[in-house]
Design brief:
single chain, alpha/beta, 17% strand
């Protein structure tokens, strides 16, 4: 995970206008996770948020049963199992993250 100093050198204006670094976790069921089970510590984005602390805002954009890949055959067949065709993808883009974590 890059530190805020290195991140600010790449995007100085973006980070100066925010009080926190935005992290978007994108992926399938491992990202989305299962909340509420006593055997689970929660989805990894929740654990990442705890680990990073108050300087980071971590959002979970996981969607189970989706592929984050955009291979030609999925596009050609208009397969809706691609993350790229899911509304969650648009939400992740609109969040305008500083860091994106793919699972």
């Amino acid at each position: 995970v890059p530190d805020a100093k290195r991140a600010s050198s790449r995007h100085p204006r973006r980070l100066e206008t925010r009080s926190v670094v935005r992290v978007a976790c994108v992926g399938a069921s491992i990202t989305e996770g299962i909340r509420g089970l006593s055997i689970s510590r929660g989805p990894y984005p929740d654990q990442l948020a705890s680990f990073l602390g108050s300087g980071y805002e971590v959002r979970n954009f996981g969607k189970g049963d989706r592929s984050v890949l955009k291979p030609f055959h999925i596009i050609a067949m208009h397969d809706t199992s691609s993350y790229w065709s899911d509304p969650m993808f648009q939400e992740a883009k609109e969040y305008s993250p500083d860091i994106v974590v793919f699972q």
